[in-house]
Description:
Structural class: mainly alpha
Number of domains: 1
Order of helices and strands: HEEHHHHHH
Strand content: 5-15%
Oligomer: single chain
Radius of gyration: 16 Å
Amino acid sequence: xxxxxxxxxxxxxxxxxxxxxxxxxxxxxxxxxxxxxxxxxxxxxxxxxxxxxxxxxxxxxxxxxxxxxxxxxxxxxxxxxxxxxxxxxxxxxxxxxxxxxxxxxxxxxxxxxxxxxxxxxxxxxxxxxxxxxxxxxxxxxxx
Length: 143
């Protein structure tokens, strides 16, 4: 998300988690999250946010021109070589459909546990709710 969108998302109850690692899909590269209470009270909004995110990922992965324009406009990257490199790296890390793997979330929790002792007892399932992504996947969204 771009910074203004990120701020609006946070005010609405969403947070963005971003951590890109060389391990690719085995590590969470990008995830959008919120509380279970917010999900319960706002399922339609959550469904629309997940759909918009998934559509954005699909566009990024399938339309290089649009992706490069987004990198230039939203990330303010003007150097064409850096734009290409950014596109190339993120194209490989962004998952579509945008599931977050259990293994990836376990890796995030393990990393966070160094600074947050409570994370040592947390389970990946405590943070994952993939039903909205599964709905899109079942409907064949973006295909």
